[in-house]
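Design request, tokens follow.
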């Protein structure tokens, strides 16, 4: 990618099947709060997790659905030898790293603020529909900001 080209990050939450979308969104804050360490990479971040029962499966579930809504992300999981930690790497081009940092902070607050009423799937679907352009705008803003720096 040329230095003056702007990478647009378009998150399409509707690409995640409706029957698992709520669970995916609700799991994000807990997933990232479980990280024991975060290492900055040239084009993203690596999150370190304790290698405990169920952790790999939760990271694999995250990747399965995340790659649908955010195809611009590079996603990788590495398990260190001898029962060592599990690393989740999120990478991308352009201003992705800055967008990821800002997006994780904003998404945590937004998802936590959704008040789910049991049996009101239409309300949740409307919230997801409203979140998609907000997250897309946030990613685009971060990309523009990083190219100005």
């Amino acid at each position: 990618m040329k230095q003056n080209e702007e990478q647009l990050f378009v998150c399409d939450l509707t690409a995640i099947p409706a029957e698992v979308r709520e669970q995916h969104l609700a799991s994000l804050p807990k997933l990232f709060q479980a990280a024991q360490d975060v290492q900055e990479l040239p084009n993203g971040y690596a999150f370190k997790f304790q290698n405990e029962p169920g952790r790999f499966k939760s990271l694999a579930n995250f990747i399965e659905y995340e790659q649908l809504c955010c195809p611009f992300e590079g996603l990788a999981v590495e398990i260190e030898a001898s029962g060592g930690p599990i690393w989740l790497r999120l990478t991308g081009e352009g201003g992705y790293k800055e967008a990821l940092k800002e997006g994780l902070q904003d998404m945590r607050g937004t998802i936590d603020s959704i008040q789910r009423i049991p049996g009101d799937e239409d309300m949740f679907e409307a919230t997801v529909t409203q979140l998609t352009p907000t997250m897309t705008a946030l990613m685009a803003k971060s990309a523009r900001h990083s190219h100005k720096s």
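Comment from the thread starter after seeing the answer: thanks! Confidence is low (pLDDT under 50) at residues 1-6, 138-149.
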